[in-house]
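tool=predict chain=A
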Amino acid sequence: MSNEKILNKKLLKNINTVVFFDMVSKVLSFLLMILLVRLLSKESFAAITLFISISALISNSISNGLNLSYVRYEVERYSKTGSYTNLLIISLLIQLMLIIIVVFLFYIYLCLPYSKNVLILEVFFFSVLYSIGLVLFSTISTFLQIQEKYVLNGTLINIKNLTIFFICFIFSIYNNSINFDIVAIIYILAPAFSIPILYYIFKTTIFEKINKSDFKEFIRASIWLILYSVFIAFLSQVDIIIINSMLSERDLANYGVSFRYYIILLSILPSITTVLRIRTSKKDLINSAKKQKKMVIEWIRSTSKYVIPLITICIIISPTVLPLLNGDEYQLAIIPFQILSIGAGISYIFSPGITIFMAMKKYRLLCGITLLALSINVIGNILIINHLNIIGVAIMTILAHAFLNITIVLYVLMNLSKK
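tool=predict ok
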């Protein structure tokens, strides 16, 4: 068997492993979603939607860029030298320092305008605590991904998710309802076991000291990838923030339901992206434009056969299935979910684009395209929201994501054709 076939077989095996654990995770998220929809009032569910969005925005803005840069550097280096550097420790310290800055900015621009709203301040406070836990957990997950220990990584993720679901379920048995404070505290405590695991990693792993030139290269790449992460984090959550600012709690709750199911639809995408990121960081693919182009084209062809029919089925059955899951109170969530489903399909089909783009080290251009997509989303939402309500928000969100994914894939294919 040729070396390329062995690598492709390993890639498929890794994707299947990560997909399995991610599917388990999303099943738990799905069950938790139904549980919270049934137990929480619309006001509390709207608060939870905002809590999760702000937490994701803070943690993703901070950790994703550094982790992306760390993965690209460390995987490429390990494939050549067989050793790890102390970048993991440096990256974590930088993230913890950046979280202070991001929280300060969030407080000034998002909390002070709502200083009289006690619930908003409470949501922000809990979001900060949860985002710290997410950053710590993300550091562990990134290190395990670099070692290609996908089974262990998937197990830890599901322990966290199972903890959240199990405690909420226990509360639901003894209480007919549950409030926002309790759910938020459960979310915050769930990643706490990451602290002793991080300590064990630092204690048992031999890290070589990174040299100055490599560190400077890491920082240069990190700056652009951090900016990209900030833009992509806002692109993923800005619809929730705009609805919270311009529409009612009822609208936020309905969109929150459709958005959570949309996230469940995207359940396999993080698994695919994780494995592709590791694969495209290895030296055999970095140095071959032909292999990169072949990978993108084959991916689009193969995934389209499955994704398009599955998304079509989701759109057709959602008017029947969603009311059974959520009750009649969230009928307005159906059409936004159908629109978001189309965006999920586009994301799957064009998913290798960004990882190949990073392998080409086009970090600055990646930031520019993502910022343009974010601008389309924000401006479009503001212009359309008073006319089409949450349906308009869903439309603009998907248009922005489609612009980002398709533009990058087209650039990759055109650029690689020249080589």
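The first helix runs from residue 3 to 39. The chain has a mean pLDDT of 80.
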